[in-house]
Amino acid sequence: MNFYEQVYAVILQIPRGKVSSYGRIASMLGRPRAARAVGFALNALKDKQDDPLHAKLPWQRVVNSKGRISIVNREYGRNEQAERLRAEGVVVNNKLQIDLDIYLWEGLHWMEIDDILKVQKE
DNA sequence: ACAGTGACAACAT
DNA sequence: TATGTTGCCACTG
């Protein structure tokens, strides 16, 4: 199981209506400085439109450390991410910013991470 | 083996 | 606020 798959496994745990950040996800996986790699993992996903994971993964729930949408316009853009979030009740203001005091997901502890990665392995 | 590439983050202007 | 700089790191060819 490579790092990307671990990233996807964590993102699948983010509850509807909550968000997390690239850096926090990296930290959960024991790599507090691998934020860029997390972004890269999501970027790689856009090349796999056919992969069922692409449809299943709530990629819209990952924003930057300031609570702002980082994605630039590509296949889908900032607006699509904002719309997807609003559709699940997250307030995104006109600056594409989200109030982390309200919507930030607490995340998982290392023991829970351990379980998730174990399940994925099977 | 190695250099290039980002949907980052923290800090300095 | 808004840019710019620097450090980062997994993956790729």
Instruction: Name the assembly state.
Output: single chain
CATH H level, superfamily name: Winged helix-like DNA-binding domain superfamily/Winged helix DNA-binding domain
Rg, Cα atoms, Å: 14 Å
DSSP helix count? 7
Distance between the termini: 10 Å
Name the structural class. mainly alpha
Just name the CATH architecture: Orthogonal Bundle
Biggest sheet strand line-up = 1-2
Largest sheet: 2 strands, parallel
Which ranges are low-confidence, i.e. pLDDT below 50, for 5 or more consecutive residues? none
> Helix share of residues?
40-55%
In CATH, the topology is named Arc Repressor Mutant, subunit A
Give helix and strand order, one letter per element, not per position.
Answer: HEHHHEHHH
Number of strands: 2
User: pLDDT average, as an integer?
Assistant: 91
Report the top-level CATH class. Answer: Mainly Alpha
Q: What share of residues are in beta strands?
A: under 5%
Summarize the structure.
The protein is 48% helix and 3% strand. The protein has 122 residues and is mainly alpha-helical.
Please give a structural write-up.
By secondary structure, the chain is mainly alpha-helical. It has a two-stranded parallel sheet with strand order 1-2. The mean pLDDT is 91. The chain has one domain: Arc Repressor Mutant, subunit A (Orthogonal Bundle), CATH 1.10.10. Helix 1 (3-11) crosses helix 3, helix 1 packs across helix 7 (110-121) and helix 2 (22-28) packs across helix 3. The chain is built from seven helices and two strands, in the order H-E-H-H-H-E-H-H-H. The protein has helices spanning 3-11, 22-28, 35-45, 52-56, 78-87, 100-103, 110-121, and strands spanning 20-21, 62-63. The protein binds a DNA duplex (13 and 13 nucleotides) through residues 2-4, 21-23, 26, 31, 33-44, 46, 59, 62-66, 69-72, 74, 78, 81.
